[in-house]
Amino acid sequence: QKKKYLFLNYHIDLNDEKIREIKDQYNQYGKMIKNYVIDGSLFLSEQLANHKNILFEGAQGTMLDVDHGTYPYVTSSNPMAGCVCTGCGISPVYVEKVIGITKAYTTRVGEGPFPTELADSIGQEIRDIGHEYGATTGRPRRCGWFDAPVVNYANRINGIKEMVLTKLDVLGTFRKIKICREYRIHNQVYSFFPADSELVQYIQPVYEELDGWMEDISHITKYGDLPANTKRYIERLESLTNSKITLISVGPNRYQTIIR
What we know:
28% of the residues lie in helices and 23% in strands. The protein is an alpha/beta fold. It has a 4-stranded mixed β-sheet with strand order 3-7-11-12, covered by helices on one side. The longest helix is centred in the first third of the chain and has 18 residues, at 16-33.
């Protein structure tokens, strides 16, 4: 006798022998992972009671959030600070600090709005120097200048006042570096990414230009040793995003991190 199951609109005929085979196979999987399965909420509660420090790391980025991102070009979940509580089963009162992570320029994987995208040789140079290709698929990432309105939006809805700036060394070959400080849409100025998706297609980035430092900074480990123009760039980003940059990455290795 055959039993019929419906999986995603595909009919699969399974007999009893095949069902037992699948059941036994997945029982073995269960035994393999049994020791790694716990009540996560209870475990975290116990650690908090013992005054342990807990670090939560978010995946992807705010603009890919299914509710607050650039829908429909989003993921299927909420990669925001607020999702720590629903995802891990802890109360919001235990989240003491939210730290944002942003590159020194802007990238995006796949489709979706990207106001500062550089579809030219500069964008390609950033992509090549920064190795902006998917680790698994090799798909090239879209690259552009730093987008302060996007970061402001992310900072606002995540409660970010402190940031980590990564890949600053990638910009070391450019004589001039641009920052998008605001958007202009129908003669109206926006300092953050608009919630109305109909307006996104009309975004005109408003740039300001800074002098580059034209120097390899990947060996520098102290903030005071950075070139003057590098520090001006960092401090301007802080001013535009109303946040403090406390960690700076100038390369992929652990020692290439500057702590301010």
